[in-house]
Amino acid sequence: MPTKVIVDCSTGETTEVELTAEEIKDMEAAQKAAEIERKAQEVIAAAKATAKAALLEKLGINAEEAALLLS
Amino acid sequence: MATYTLISSNVLASSAASVTFSAIPATYTDLVIRASIRNTSTTSITRIRLNGITSGYSARSLTGDGATASSQTQSTAYLYSGELNTSSTTANTFTSMEFYLPNYLSTVNKPISTIASTENNATTAYTVAVAGLSTITSAITSIEVYVGANAFDVGSSFYLYGISNA
To answer: In angstroms, what separates the C-alpha of A51 from chain B's closest C-alpha?
Structure first.
């Protein structure tokens, strides 16, 4: 059974407590949601990068030249 | 001149899903957690909760993995605090993480920053910088560092420091 550690800063005492079934369920659900969100962000970032590269190619300039134009 | 005082620490002798520093004294200006962490599984996200509260966190993060850089926005029931070493990374390597919480006794929203660098003797390793915000408007008395699934591995260490500005 997974455990959690609690450090009481007022006493310095450390206790180890087993997670409840509900805590395990909640944490696993939150983890799945976070990973889905992170993958979605990565897909968006990759799509933007691809679109940017395509546009630069269409314009016949590179990223440094585009930055110069926008400066 | 700022001074660091070690408030409490813990080095895991057995794996644990979370480490909570409770009853944090209200005698400092800022708080810092320095941790060396690794997950027992392939889960790679570290999270932090303040005062046990599960709402009101947001963050912008910048991630580099050795090949690409990306940025993300999170608004979640916890503060996203970067990547950490997983069981897929080189054995016995750990992520170095620093969590900084200024003005933790204030009664207004609290800015938070975290930086975490994974260690991996292979192509991919992550460095993540996180700019976070908590809408908690009471003094912070507890900080929980945890992973969403599985656990921090044996040997992971956590050090809580108080910073005084004089």
So the answer is: 15
